[in-house]
Amino acid sequence: STIKATVAMAHMFKFTYNSGVTNGIAPFYSEVSGLLFDGSSLATTSAIYNDYDMHMKIERNAIFNVPNGILNGIGIGIGYGVTEIIYNTIRAGICINLSAGDNIVEHNDLYPIGVNGIGVYLAPWSGDTGIIKNIFSRDTVNDPSSVLYAVRFDGALSTDGSKEIRDIDISFNEFD
Predict the structure, then answer these.
(1) Partners of residue 117 on adjacent β-strands
(2) Is there a contact between 80 and 103 (Cβ–Cβ < 8 Å)?
(3) Half-sphere exposure of residue 168: CA atoms within 13 angstroms, side-chain side
(4) What is the Cα–Cα distance from 34 to 41, expressed in whole angstroms?
(5) How far is it, in rounded angstroms, from Cα 17 to Cα 20?
(6) What would the pLDDT profile of 103-117 be if each residue is shown by its tens digit?
(7) Cα-based angle 138, 140, 143 (whole degrees, multiple of 5)
(8) 107: Cβ contacts below 8 Å, ≥ 6 apart
(9) Cross-strand partners of 31
């Protein structure tokens, strides 16, 4: 199935904690699988936005034409995490943008694009994450960008050190 943006929108799919409910709970044990997301450059932020969720699985999707393929933990900024991002193909400015910990990013084909394209972006709170057996590729034919990051750590948002990035396992990846 294809989900295609036909009008301007921030996110194509959104899973988030409802802060308007007293003692509200986060989405948990959710899965997005087997879809093609075409942002058509109309999705202005992301294809999949998940924040403050628990045990999210994002598997076997294709994501194109968006600034961020997957945004994890960005809104509230202290997402529970425990997200599995596996077997996806993503072509975006930032393919996977993490600001929540306890993630598995495995067996993805990532094509960061743009002047500062990033395969996996690790912001504060993104610790305890495994980035394993992914393929990071640069599409020089369609996107002759000058700067590309396969994996980028950005602890600058945590000036007091309380939101550090820690315990990251980067293993068995292919960098093209």
Answers:
(1) 148
(2) no
(3) 21
(4) 21
(5) 9
(6) 999 999 999 998 889
(7) 95
(8) 86, 87, 132, 133, 134
(9) 57
